Every structure is written in structure tokens, then in C-alpha cells.
Amino acid sequence: MSEILVLVEHVDGDVKKVTLELLTLARSLGTPAAVWAGPGYSDAAKARLAEYGAEKIYVAAADEIGDYVVAPKAEVLAHLVAERSPAAVFVAATGEGKEIAGRLAVKTDSGVISDAVGVGEGFVAEQSIFGGGVNVHSRVTKGTPIITVRPNSTAPVAAAAAGAEEKVEVALSDAARAAKIVERVVQEKGARPELTEAAIVVSGGRGVGSGENFSIIEKLADTLGAAVGASRAATDAGWYPHQFQVGQTGKTVSPQLYIAAGISGAIQHRAGMQTSKTIVVINKDAEAPLFEIADFGVVGDLFQVVPQLTEEIEKRK
Amino acid sequence: MNIVVCVKQVPDTATERKLRSDDKTLDRDAADGVVNELDEYAVEEALRLKEAHGGEVTVLSMGPAKATETIRKALAMGADKAVHLHDDALHGSDALGTSYAVSQALKKIGFDLVILGSESTDARTGMLAAMLAERLGAPQLTLAGKVEVEGTAIRVERITDYGYDKVEASLPAVVSVVEKINEPRYPSFKGIMAAKKKPVETLGVVDAEIAADQVGLANAWSEVVDFAAAPPRAAGTVIKDEGDGGAKAAEFLASKKFV
Questions:
Q1: Which of A312, A314, A317 to mutate to test binding with chain B, by most B CBs within 10 Å of its CB?
Q2: Which of A308, B98, B107, B193 is the most buried (most CB within 10 A)?
Q3: What residues in A contact B246, CB-CB < 8 Å?
């Protein structure tokens, strides 16, 4: 079977969960080959990638790949596409992943599909567009299919493979060195998982009423090991930082479980969470549109229901 | 400083959006066309940079005839002039074709700085700025939460999952900005009136030296195979809280093995 390149997402040398998902997906369509670009590669990373099915691991670990915005990673992938003629390239549909895929598409004169929620035979991708209202199947018709895949679209399943390492040396072009990263600023975010990667997300909206009140959302999230999200009404009001906004103009999440408290569910919010597997809604307004897509809903005061839910979960642990 | 800000007309996200059954492209008649709201942050940032450093702000929009409404809105906010990239040959262009056409128009217009929103709310590829940087050979300063220009130096804070990266480059450059980088101004009455007199140049594929075999639906690098309205989710259980709503929700989560 032919090779499918999977660009590894990594932070501080740790392989992110979405990469394990992409390796699992690639295994159903070809032979997964992981591509590590940037510093931080280690035996632990190698073991992790092999555990999830990487037959091969291409390693371009030069420090300078991490010193510039996006372009060097696209050059590493373009080099491998030219050398290896893979059947497809999979990249995580994160902000940076989509940009890498875009540059790679231009470099290799290949079609690109953004934010797939599934990929089938013939690399036909499934997308959920217009806020989850329409399902589309699409495919690349020229060049090497480049597909960015939404985190949490595939459950990662381990299946040990060789993980044969191959070093890749790429001489970066001057254009790839044009936007220099002079400092990385890491903001404290505690022990919570990242919003787009989290298996469970607990979000609060207008009904939460204030920034201080978000502590009850956070408590429930922490009890479940979940990420915290917020509706636009809540971020616009300044109750929760903007980067946690779930919705049309914010993050798109697709967790196993999405709990919405005090969110009425305007179409713009549903656009960011409609592909969640299980949806629980808590709102005092029985007419809130989000109840229409809830698997379980409680019409009630979130200040009563959420703390009780948190307490009950604690008891059951 | 010669700033070009790219804006796109998109269907209103508050309405039901559709694809056309004939050629499977966006149905622009099914919903009201509005300025992509993420582009309003780009227009505002362009205006602020002009106010701080002088120069001129040109709006560039690729789209059908009715995209002029969107162009007028950006002019009413305070941009100086506009270029409307409009040609039937461009209809149905995918991300590669669009980035190619826009890059050709940008070469024609000339720029020190190109500013875009982080993505459009209809296609949501989030790729255009990166593709433009690639095609133009210009530094990519995207997903910026802060932009500073000093002479020919430009610095941005690029928003990441862990915080942000401080990034430096030299002009000319391509920037995209995130939502909430600023508070976009509302067009004043005076602005709206003035916009009616501002020059809007229309460029077709020939004018912009766009190779016709690189754009349009027939030449796209990808195709829609089929599409359908998402099936409605199976109706769930909704209960009224009678003092035990939280406990009932916990039971539900336990039944699904979440706790």
C-alpha cells in the first residue's frame, strides 16, 4: 500500500493526540508515515508514533525549522512529496496546520481540503459545513491530495508498527526565513486539556452572568477532566477570555461530550459544536434552540443544576 | 504606507446557508450578503496603521457584482479606494484558484502590507493569507493579535494554542488578524456619504493578468462529489428541574460511561 504522510503536531517534544488520530485514520487507507518537523524529537516521540502505526518516521529536526512561521514545515513536506510521491498528506486542521497545508498545496500544485471530519476510499473527504447544517463529500482532483482533518474526528487506536526512522535534510529557502519567531510566550493555562483536543468540553454562556460565576463552569469541567469553553455572548462581555470562544468565529470543537450551560444556542454557536458526539444542555429557558440538538437537557437554573451535577459526579468517582 | 485590505462578501451566518444544486457552489442568492465579520477587524487594523503611519488603504474584494455592497461598507469605514476583482471566469474558484487570482491582483495594485481576516465564515479554510504569502514570496505574519510597524520593520504577536509567538519581519508582508484584535468602528453618516464618491476600480482576469486556465470551477484542484442537509440529531430527553436536575444529568452521563 502506498504511503500517507502524517505531519506530527508536537508541543515541547510531546506528540499531540490529534496526530495519533491521523495515524489511525491513515492506517485505514494506506501505510502511515509520520513526518516530524522541528526540534524536540526524542525516543519517546518515536515510540509513541510507532505505537500508533507509523511504519516510517521522517525526521527533519533542524532547530531552524522551528525558528520561522509555518513556511519551513511546508518546505519539509514539499520535499517529501517530491521525493516519495505519497498517496496523500494528512495535517491536523488547527490554525497552523491549515496554513501549512495551504502553502504545501501551492508549492506542489495540489488540491487541498480543509477541516475534514472523515476520509474514505479514494480520499473522498467528508466535511460538515455552514455550522453543521450541510454534509459535503469532496475530493482533490489535481496533484497529491492534501487533507486537513478536524481533531476528535477519529478515535485513536494503537497498532504497533516499525517506526523506521529516516533523517531528512532540507535546505530552507530565503522565503521560508522571512518571518522570524523571536520569542515564544507560554501563557499559564493550568492542567485543563486544550479546547479543540479535549474529549469533554463544558461551556458557559450569557446565563452564567459574570466572570466570577464562571468558576462553577470550571469546577464542573475539572471534575470531568474537561476543557472550558464559552459562547460569544460570554467572551464579548469579557467574562471569559476570547480564545475560549466556541462558535462560528471562534474554535470548532468536536468532543465526545459537550455540556452547555446558560447557552441558548444561536446558529453561530452551534456552528462550533454541532459535531459533538453527545450534547447535554442546561438552560432555564425551555425554548432555547440548543435543546433541539441535545441528547439530554435540563430546563432549570444552572446555578442549582450545575453544582448538583458536579457534586453527583464527585460522589460517583 | 500602501496597505491593501482583503474583504469578502459572505452569506449572513444568522440565516440558512445553502449550496446550489446545479454546480455545487455557494448559493449567493439564498441568503443576504454581508461583510465577512472577521474582515472588519482587518479593515479596522488597516485604518489604525494608516492613522499612525500615514499612507493609503485600498480595499480588495473578489466576488460577483453584488460584492460592491461589501466594498462600500469598507470604504464607509474609512478606506480610501477599492479594487473589485470581478469576472465570470472566477466563479467557482477553490482556495488555490482564489489565492492565485488575488495574488495577481495584489501584484497589479502594489503593496507594503496586505491585511486579511483570519478566515471567511462561509468556506472557513483559514488558508488564504498563508497561500498569498507563499505566492507573493512575502513574510507570513498570520493570526496576529497585535501588529506594530516601525519604518520597514513589522512585529506581530501570533496567537498560538499555548499563548503567542513574537514574530518579526520586513515589509512588504502579509498579515492576518484574529477576532478581537481591535473594536471595528461603525461607519459614520459622513463616512457612508463619502464612500459613494470614492473610486472603485473593477479588474477582470485580463486586466489582472490572471491565466484563465488557473481559475474557475472547471479548473479547480478539488471538487464537491455530493452534499446533503445534515440529518437531524435524534431527539433527546429534556427534563424539567424539580430539584434533582443535576442528579438526573449525572445519571445520564453515567449511563453513557462519562463518569
A1: A312
A2: B98
A3: 298, 304-312
Contacts of B157 in chain A (CB under 8 A): 185
Domains identified in chain B, total number: 1
Q: Is residue B236 included in any domain, yes or no?
A: no
**What's the CA gap between A189 and A187, in Å, rounded?**
6
A297/B238 touch (CB, cutoff 8 Å), yes or no: yes
A185–B159 C-beta distance less than 8 A: no
Query: Which pLDDT score, from 0 to 100, does residue A248 have?
Result: 87
Per CATH, the number for A200-316 is: 3.40.50.1220
Rounded to the nearest angstrom, the minimum Cα separation between A79 and chain B is 15
CB proximity under 8 Å: A 28-67 to B: none
Provide the grid cell at A241.
477570555
**Paired sense of beta strands A10-11 and A14-15, if any:** antiparallel
Helix ranges, B110-188 (H): 128-136
**Whole domain around residue B136: which residue ranges?**
2-219
Tens-digit pLDDT profile for residues A224-243: 999 999 999 999 999 998 88
CB A195 within 8 A of CB A227: yes
Instruction: With respect to residue B224, please indicate whether it lies within any of the assigned structural domains.
Output: no
Q: ipTM for the complex?
A: 0.95
C-alpha distance across the termini of chain B, in Å: 58
Quote the DSSP letter at residue B165.
E
Which of B18, B224, B241, B244 is most worth mutating to test chain A (most A CB atoms within 10 A of its CB)?
B241
Q: Is A117 helix (H, G, I), strand (E, B) or coil?
A: strand
Q: Is the pTM of this model over 0.90?
A: yes
At A267, the pLDDT band (50, 70, 90 cuts) reads confident
Q: What is the pLDDT of residues A175-189, one digit of tens each?
A: 999 999 999 998 866
Listing DSSP states for A167-226 in one string gives E------SGGGSSEEEEEEEPP-TTPPPTTT-SEEEEE-GGG-STTTHHHHHHHHHHHT-
Q: What CATH number is given to the structural domain containing B179?
A: 3.40.50.620
User: In CATH, what is the architecture of A3-177?
Assistant: 3-Layer(aba) Sandwich (3.40)
- Say whether pLDDT at A1 is over 70: no
User: Taking Cα atoms as reference points, which of B105, B173, B165, B128 lies closest to residue B38?
Assistant: B128
Query: B202 in a domain, yes or no?
Result: yes
Q: Do A248 and B229 touch (CB under 8 A)?
A: no
Give B-chain residues touching A141 at CB under 8 angstroms: 220-223
Residue of B nearest to A305 (CA): B246
Quote the pLDDT of residue A189.
67
Name B139's bridge partners.
none
